[in-house]
TrEMBL record:
Catalytic class of the enzyme: transferase
Protein known as: Glycerate kinase
Family named by the database record: Belongs to the glycerate kinase type-1 family.
GO molecular function: glycerate kinase activity
Biological process annotations from GO: organic acid phosphorylation
Organism classification: Bacteria, Bacillati, Actinomycetota, Actinomycetes, Mycobacteriales
Cited Gene3D superfamilies: Glycerate kinase, domain 1, Glycerate kinase, domain 2
Superkingdom of the source species: Bacteria
Keywords of this entry: Kinase, Transferase
Organism, scientific name: Nocardia terrae
InterPro entries registered for this protein in UniProt: Glyc_kinase_flavodox-like_fold, Glycerate_kinase, Glycerate_kinase_RE-like, Glycerate_kinase_sf
Enzyme Commission code(s) on record: 2.7.1.-
Length: 387
């Protein structure tokens, strides 16, 4: 019996990782009804991280927390025993900005801290924090305040939300935060190595994606520098140059400096959480994917991580995607035997977006024809009408 493992990320804006897996599995089963096909959705620490954990058997814990502009949003963390998986994108991310309006100077990470605090209050002692897709550049100050830190201006009042407010930090009191987080291990899923400040820092590199113009980038960078200096005076060490400090608008910095967090590659961490290694054992073929395969895919994205793990185990791996811009030699060097894209069978990109699940079934059938011996002519003829 052929055994196939589907471990795809989402097709952003079109299909969840679960939906991608289900569609590809349906296509494979049409070609090989006897095949054993397992679906293990994956993510790289950004949006879809909690969904991947839930698909792996974690329990959903819903709650309401502050969105990036302070409005309440319904979110959830995933829990297994004393381990909580928190997804920053789902509470403090760009996708949570009301009407999609960017707020580069005032967006806050407060809601992320609220979710962590809720998980700790519920008894979780290990927190996995995925920090991709953040909406703000507040240096993690909002997250820390939600965990009990007091960040006060010269008049003894709260500094307010967002990166611009960091210049007002006059005093820092971490007493309540330390009490809450005592004995709690924090692991951050992070795939960038930017420092907090400077030309490759959080504001300079990622600020424009969050709506900051050149003057605002300069203002945010200066504010992050002041914030780092204040924290260094409080803690006795300066972590602004640590690789990953600039992740998620400086949330990486706050997690490292104040929470004592460990930073790990997102897909590596997620593969462990979803039990990928045990699912991989005995597989004859691995299928992974995401909406677009390009050079960014090869730098810490989920498909590259899946391909590396499969290749190390000696299992062939192919990719499904909406569009592929990687040449064949780059695919092979990364461990992919092939890539199957929706635009190869449907040039209309809007139809690919709208009818992705149906088209993925066709790709699943093609993959079975190419990689799983035993697809009979009769079955192939029967499936030929899928469109």
């Amino acid at each position: 019996m052929a055994r196939v493992l589907i471990a795809s990320d989402k097709f952003k804006g079109s299909l969840t990782a679960v939906q991608v897996g289900a569609a590809v599995r349906a296509g494979i089963r049409r070609a090989r009804p006897d095949a054993s096909v397992s679906v293990v959705p994956v993510a790289d620490g950004g949006d879809g991280t909690v969904a991947a954990a839930l698909a792996a058997g974690f329990d959903a814990v819903p709650l309401t927390a502050s969105g990036p502009t302070g409005e309440p949003v319904l979110t959830a963390y995933a829990r297994r025993d004393d381990l909580a998986v928190v997804e920053m994108a789902d509470v403090s991310g760009l996708v949570r900005l009301p009407d999609g309006l960017l707020r580069p100077m005032t967006a806050t990470s407060r809601g992320t801290g609220e979710v962590i605090a809720a998980a700790v209050a519920a008894g979780c002692r290990r927190i996995v924090l995925g920090i991709g897709g953040s909406a703000g550049t507040d240096g993690g100050a909002g997250m820390l305040e939600a965990l009990g830190a007091r960040l006060l201006d010269a008049d003894g009042r709260s500094i307010g939300d967002g990166g611009a407010a960091l210049t007002r930090v006059h005093s820092i009191d971490l007493t309540a935060l330390r009490e809450l987080m005592d004995g709690v291990e924090v692991i951050v899923a992070c795939d960038v190595d930017n420092p907090l400040t400077g030309p490759t820092g959080a504001a300079a590199v990622y600020g424009p994606q969050k709506g900051a113009d050149p003057a605002q980038v300069a203002e945010l960078d200066a504010a992050l520098g002041q914030w780092a200096q204040r924290l260094a005076a409080e803690l006795g060490s300066d972590r602004r140059e640590t690789a990953g400090a600039g992740a998620a608008g400086g949330v990486g910095f706050a997690a490292l400096a104040v929470l004592g967090a460990t930073l790990r590659p997102g897909i590596e961490l997620m593969l462990e959480l979803v039990g990928f290694e045990s699912e991989l054992a005995g597989a004859d073929l691995v299928i992974t994917g995401e909406g677009k395969l390009d050079e960014q895919t090869l730098h810490g994205k989920a498909p590259a991580g899946v391909a590396a793990a499969a290749r190390a185990a000696g299992v062939p791996v192919v990719a499904v995607c909406g569009r592929n811009t990687l040449p064949e030699d780059r695919l092979r060097d990364t461990g992919f035997a092939a890539a199957y894209s929706l635009v190869e069978i449907e040039p209309d990109e809007q139809r690919c977006f709208n009818a992705g699940a149906m088209l993925l079934q066709q790709l699943g059938f093609r993959i079975a024809e190419d990689y799983l011996p035993g697809v009979t002519a009769a079955v192939a003829e029967q499936a030929g009408g899928v469109s």
